[in-house]
């Protein structure tokens, strides 16, 4: 009787070890898949609303309410550019810039701003008191950090 119990225990332990090994091997791909999905989900949310929080200039959706006198108010979503671009100021070396600038500049400043590089026109038909009007809006196709302009 003791031999049968021992053999049964060994067989049960063997089966349990085999089952545990198979279970852990089949669970590993699932756990990896789950981790990848959660990482991709967090990355895709960064590509959405919060992508502009990363350094650089990014194309983002921009929804706004439009009010034109004597027309029906409406909302429109176009693409805009938003982000953070590099700028800096350094003391200039007088001998190096004396021939370049008149009068010589004590500080050299470089500034880049988030700019719309390419855009497209979006047409919208609006119902107004005098009839239907076609209104045109710009929508960004591409954005980039580019030198800032003073107007």
Automatic annotation (TrEMBL):
Domain Glycoprotein hormone subunit beta residues, every copy: 55-151
Protein name as it appears in the record: Thyrostimulin alpha-2 subunit
Highest classification ranks of the organism: Eukaryota, Metazoa, Ecdysozoa, Arthropoda, Hexapoda
GO biological process: cell surface receptor signaling pathway
Subcellular location: Secreted
Entry's Gene Ontology molecular function annotations: hormone receptor binding
GO (cellular component) term, any one: extracellular space
InterPro entries: Cystine-knot_cytokine (IPR029034), Glyco_Hormone_Alpha (IPR052680), Glyco_hormone_CN (IPR006208)
Keywords from the UniProt entry: Disulfide bond, Secreted
Species the sequence originates in: Drosophila albomicans
